[in-house]
Amino acid sequence: MAERFAIITGASTGIGFELASLAARNGYDILVVADEPLIEAAAADFRQYGHGVDALEADLSSPEGVDKLLAATNGRTIDLLCANAGRGLGHAFLDQAVDDWRAVVETNITGTAYLLQKVLKDMVARNDGKVLVTGSIAGYIPGAFQAVYNGTKAFIDSFVAALQNEIKDADGVTITNLMPGPTDTEFFARGDMLDTDVGTDPHKDDPAKVAADGWDALMDGKAAVVSGWKNKLQSAVANVTPNAVLAEQHRKMAEPGTADD
């Protein structure tokens, strides 16, 4: 058993998979979770690094799912949390089923907030621990044809910054916000966005590079990191660009049927 223990959510593929690999390579026992059976295959891959790996299939969109995850720790102290689980959804908001957009809100906001509240209470009490939250530069941009997702990421980006201030006296605890741009993961297929420019863009960021940027910032105790120079530029420009302009720009990337235009 390693001295350090980490939880990585959304770890079956993409950025979460790469974060779990980094944790295992860096000497952590890990508990990995996702809402699909593929998490078991991912766990088998992580075991090559010689540390303890437990896997759990759970839906983290509800407090019950988060409680299931925390029960799977068997009371072990959580030294590191990568709160990476998230859900996307494309197409016009008026065309989306209520259950579909609610799942985005409940996964990205409700489940994440509840998990952070539970884990951070213990970390702050002992004044020790590290948390990485996967936000997004999407939180800076009104997301036409991805409105609910971008709105949830705006919440996360703001929420993390507020928490950082609230716990600033617990100097042994750090929270880092990882803000990637479009990344080459299953996100766009799962969000039904393969008929959009952004979904079919062959130049999306490498999830391994995004995870490495987040990991380095986490280990350095940084408040936030935007992964990729293009995304750094986009997030900076977003701060001085009118919302109507940003929304129109996003429309061109995310409107269904634009992939071949």
From TrEMBL:
Presence of the UniProt keyword Oxidoreductase in the record: yes
Domain Ketoreductase: 4-185
InterPro entries the record matches: KR_dom (IPR057326), NAD(P)-bd_dom_sf (IPR036291), Sc_DH/Rdtase_CS (IPR020904), SDR_fam (IPR002347)
SMART domains named in the record: PKS_KR
Pfam families the UniProt entry points to: adh_short
Coiled coil residues, start to end: none
Gene3D superfamilies noted in UniProt: NAD(P)-binding Rossmann-like Domain
Keyword Oxidoreductase: yes
Alphabetic keyword roster: Oxidoreductase
Similarity comment text for this entry: Belongs to the short-chain dehydrogenases/reductases (SDR) family.
Protein name: SDR family NAD(P)-dependent oxidoreductase
Source species: Sphingomonas kyungheensis
